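Exercise 4. Each item below gives a protein and its sequence. For each, produce the structure-token representation.

Item: SCO6045-like C-terminal domain-containing protein (Aeromicrobium fastidiosum).
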Amino acid sequence: MTREALRQRQEDVLGALLRGEVPGGFDPRSAELTARVLRTKRRSDAVEAVPHLRDVTDLAARFDRWAAGHPRSGCAHDDVVDFVTDDDGVLPEPLASIRSVERVYRRRARWARDRRPGARPWVLAVGPWVWHAGPRVAPASPPASSALVSK
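Answer:
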């Protein structure tokens, strides 16, 4: 088997496992276990890259369903941005703002509201340009410490 043929076979096997299919010549039970491990590893990489994903309701099912149809195209951060952009479920901030803004950049929406601290609140697509408009959203002030509060 040539190097190119081996690379293609590995790519086919990995793709089938990630889609939840059993590659030819593989034990179905072992293939399912391997696919589950690969999905869990991809999801844990995404959570490690962006810890806010821990706050997403039913993350495992939602991420795994999305990942089955979307092969990894970059790093874990790219996975997170692609997931939150494509997912239609409820997302906590700042992920909801990232989804809104990214949909404008990908031309799936003409405008968005960005609620992240330090960002301009309006994101508008005008022709080939994307504009961030409005005054910057002030970051939330840190809670007052009891040692610093005068009595």
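Check: Confidence is low (pLDDT under 50) at residues 145-151.
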